[in-house]
């Protein structure tokens, strides 16, 4: 069996809906879906979108081959063989718009819009949400860590604690988009061109007769890349002094030790002591790396305590997003075809936050020309032209419509870019380096009040008056 075919990486209900549409002859009706999330993770003021590359590769790879068809034919739904035959020819021929990876995004705005037949669009829901929910979550966690780390090096160490192999590599990539500098996972390095880095485990020290011998042997084997883990027995009593001896011997061979790593104990105290000992030995160039269940709060605390740590290895807390292990992104129908005509649809809910916004939409970032800061994200129906024409905009809060302001002198940046047109990829996916730069530029668009980690200001995501009216009319109709 091939494990790399993602075609059936979908919930059964998608296939069942496709089947029922086929049975009733409505499978070629058009539909528009939008993906968005309703609540920002970690109490953060923004999220960092990621997952598009994985989704694009998935869409292009969908093939119902003999093995998948044979498997489906054995399901108790007893799908008609003619339907299964149709699946053999499944190719996505629709349109996709998406925000770019690395974009700062907010709750309740479309991140991906998919247009096509119901047959082809239903299938994509599960995989799309699986990819963007996880990767956006990790990129957002990474952005929080980058924010407190300042210009320090951040190394992603999470693979051993990640929720399996795909999460490890795609999580490493998401972290890198949002500002991590390297990963310990060589496969992620090879797949995506992420710089890789590695020190050594306690086992290396335990395997030798003495700590000094262990350090010396590693330094001999890896003279250009050696970082020594100094906490196996006694960090200040033996680890750092032994590392200093080895660094001095390396100097005689014309080599420089890169770093020492602290992985337990009081990282603030130990880093200050280690820095003092290294400096006294004339080893100012030897950096100090810290690891041990770090997250943004501990890193911020360590910095506040004056820790002398140059780079941070972050594993578990990042790769599992342990304080909030899932993002609740959803995929909702916003438009259907009825009797050959497109019409907006709504999902009503007792919970006002869960009422969907009908109609196929675009979203624009409204940037105030005088300050250069983004002041709101503005959702319009796709056929509206006010924003593109630079007309004055009424920005009002959809939950509290009496809170409003006008925008006149603004630039509008369309966030949704065409990715597939009639099944053909039309967007060249940027390199990881380009995405990192783009993400860093994105951050400059927002006031610090929106970006701060704790109790950030709520950034407005608003509806155009036309979108708002449509939503109110449909709510009225179903009341
Ligand atoms: N100065 C500090 N201030 C705040 N948190 C710290 C400080 N130093 C270390 N930490 C964090 O506190 C936690 C300590 O974990 P733990 O109680 O397991 O101690 P440990 O030193 O790792 O012990 P062990 O030797 O069993 O690994 C880690 O998350 C670590 O990053
Ligand atoms: O703490 P995290 O943020 O998850 O970072 C990864 C951890 O994985 C390693 O520990 P482990 O005990 O697995 O192996 P070791 O023998 O190399 O310390 C490493 O020393 C870090 O502590
Ligand atoms: O290179 C390291 O130090 C490393 C890598 C993965 C996990 N823990 C540590």
TrEMBL record:
Family membership: Belongs to the NAPRTase family.
GO molecular function, one term: nicotinamide phosphoribosyltransferase activity
Transmembrane portions of the chain: none
BP GO terms, sorted: NAD+ biosynthetic process via the salvage pathway
Name used for this protein in its record: Nicotinate phosphoribosyltransferase
UniProt keyword 4Fe-4S, yes or no: no
Domain Nicotinate/nicotinamide phosphoribosyltransferase per the UniProt entry, residue ranges: 154-356
EC code(s) of this entry: 6.3.4.21
Reactions that this protein is recorded to catalyse: 5-phospho-alpha-D-ribose 1-diphosphate + nicotinate + ATP + H2O = nicotinate beta-D-ribonucleotide + ADP + phosphate + diphosphate
Organism: Cohnella thailandensis
């Amino acid at each position: 069996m091939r494990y790399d075919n993602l075609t059936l990486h979908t919930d059964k209900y998608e296939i069942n809906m496709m089947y029922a549409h086929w049975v009733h002859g409505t499978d070629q009706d058009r539909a528009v879906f939008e993906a968005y999330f309703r609540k920002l993770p970690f109490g953060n003021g923004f999220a960092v979108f990621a997952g598009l590359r994985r989704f694009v590769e998935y869409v292009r790879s969908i093939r119902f081959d003999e093995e998948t068809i044979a498997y489906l034919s054995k399901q108790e739904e007893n799908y008609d063989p003619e339907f299964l035959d149709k699946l053999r020819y499944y190719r996505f021929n629709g349109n996709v718009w998406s925000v770019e990876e690395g974009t700062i995004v907010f709750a309740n705005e479309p991140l991906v819009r998919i247009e096509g037949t119901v047959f082809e669009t239903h299938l994509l829901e599960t995989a799309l949400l699986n990819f963007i929910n996880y990767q956006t979550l990790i990129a957002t966690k990474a952005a929080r860590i980058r924010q407190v780390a300042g210009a320090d090096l951040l190394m992603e160490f999470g693979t051993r604690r990640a929720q399996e192999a795909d999460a490890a590599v795609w999580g490493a990539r998401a972290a890198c988009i949002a500002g991590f500098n390297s990963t310990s996972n060589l496969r992620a390095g090879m797949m995506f061109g992420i710089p890789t880095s590695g020190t050594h485990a306690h086992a290396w020290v335990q395997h030798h007769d003495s700590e000094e011998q262990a350090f010396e042997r590693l330094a001999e084997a890896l003279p250009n890349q050696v970082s020594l883990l100094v906490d196996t027995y006694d960090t200040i009593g033996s680890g750092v002094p032994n590392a200093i001896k080895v660094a001095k011997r390396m100097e005689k061979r014309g080599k420089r030790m890169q770093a020492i790593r602290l992985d337990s104990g009081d990282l603030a105290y130990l880093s200050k002591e280690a820095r003092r000992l290294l400096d006294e030995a004339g080893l100012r160039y030897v950096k100090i790396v810290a690891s041990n269940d770090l997250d943004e709060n501990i890193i911020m605390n360590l910095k506040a305590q004056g820790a002398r740590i140059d780079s941070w290895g972050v594993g578990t807390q990042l790769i599992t997003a342990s304080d909030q292990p899932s993002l609740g992104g959803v995929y909702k129908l916003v438009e259907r075809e009825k009797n050959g005509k497109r019409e907006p649809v709504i999902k009503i809910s007792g919970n006002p936050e869960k009422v969907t916004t009908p109609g196929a939409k675009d979203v624009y970032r409204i940037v105030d020309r005088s300050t250069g800061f983004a002041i709101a994200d503005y959702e319009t129906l796709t056929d509206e032209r006010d924003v593109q024409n630079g007309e004055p905009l009424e920005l009002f809060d959809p939950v509290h419509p009496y809170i409003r302001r006008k925008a006149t002198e603004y630039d509008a940046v369309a966030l949704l870019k065409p990715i597939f047109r009639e099944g053909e990829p039309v967007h060249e996916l940027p390199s990881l380096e380009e995405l990192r730069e783009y993400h860093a530029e994105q951050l400059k668009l927002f006031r610090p009040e929106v970006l701060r980690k704790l109790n950030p200001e709520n950034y407005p995501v608003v509806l155009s008056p036309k979108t708002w009216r449509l939503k109110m009319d449909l709510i009225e109709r179903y009341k």
